[in-house]
Amino acid sequence: MEVQIKAKDYKVSPGLREFIQERVNKLDRFVERVNDAKLELTHERPRTGGERLTVQLTIATGRSILRAEEQHADVRRAVDLTVEKMCRRARRYHSKRADHSKRPSVAELTALPELTEAEVAEPDGMEEESERVYEVVRTKRFALKPMSSAEAIDQLELLGHDFFVFLNADDNKVNVLYRRKSGDYGLIQPA
C-alpha cells in the first residue's frame, strides 16, 4: 500500500520515509482495498519542555475510514505505536463485520432516556454561563454516505471518536450517533 506522508515542522529523511512505508505495509494483510493512506507527522515543543511527535495514520477503504493516532518523543517509536494501534482497529473491524449477531438493533439504539424540562433548561453544573466567547476554530467537510446505525457504530469505533454524523439509510435523514458515559450508544434523529 502506498502511503502519502505529510509533515508539519519536521523534515522527513529518505530513511525515515522508507521506515514508514515498511511499517505501513504490515497493514496489507489486515486491510483490503485501500483507496487512500495518509500519515501525518506533527512536531511539537510543549511548554513543559522536551519534544513530542504526533503521528496520525488514516486509511480509507471502499467501505470505511480507519484512523489511529499516537504521540512519542521518538519518531520511529511513534510510527510503531500508531501502526500497532491501526492493526488492532483493523482486526476489530474485520471481526465485527464477520459477527453480525453482536450488533444492537436500531430499536435498542434509539431507546434514549427522556429528559425532564428542568434537566433540559438547566443541565448539571451549568447554572451560569461564563463570560468567555466561543468561536468555531475548525470546520470539516465530508460526504455523507447512507448507512445503517450498526454501520455507523463500526465507523465511530474505527475512527476512535465520541460521535459520528451519518445519513441514515432507513429514513434518509442526517443522524448523530454518540458514545454515552456508560459505554452504550445514543442516536440523535431529527423530528
Mean pLDDT: 80
Identify low-pLDDT runs: 125-130
Main-sheet strand order equals 1-2-3-4
Binned strand content: 25-35%
First and last CA, distance: 43 Å
Helix segment tally: 5
Provide the gyration radius in Å.
Answer: 20 Å
Helix content: 25-40%
What structural keywords apply?
191 residues; alpha/beta; globular; four-stranded mixed sheet; single chain
Structure commentary:
By secondary structure, the chain is an alpha/beta fold. It is built from five helices and eight strands; from the N terminus they run βαβββαααβαβββ. The chain has helices spanning 14-24, 75-98, 106-110, 117-121, 149-159, and strands at 4-8, 34-44, 52-61, 65-72, 146-147, 163-168, 174-179, 185-188. Strands 1-2-3-4 form a four-stranded mixed β-sheet. A four-stranded mixed β-sheet has the order 5-6-7-8, covered by helices on one side. Strand 2 and strand 3 form a beta hairpin. Helix 1 (14-24) packs parallel to helix 2 (75-98). The longest helix is centred in the middle third of the chain and has 24 residues, at 75-98. It starts with a strand and ends with a strand.
Strand and helix map with partners:
Elements: E1 4-8, H1 14-24, E2 34-44, E3 52-61, E4 65-72, H2 75-98, H3 106-110, H4 117-121, E5 146-147, H5 149-159, E6 163-168, E7 174-179, E8 185-188
Parallel strand pairs: 1-2, 5-6
Antiparallel strand pairs: 2-3, 3-4, 6-7, 7-8
Question: Would you summarize the structure shown here?
Answer:
The protein has 191 residues and is of the alpha/beta class. It has helices at residues 14-24, 75-98, 106-110, 117-121, 149-159, and strands spanning 4-8, 34-44, 52-61, 65-72, 146-147, 163-168, 174-179, 185-188.
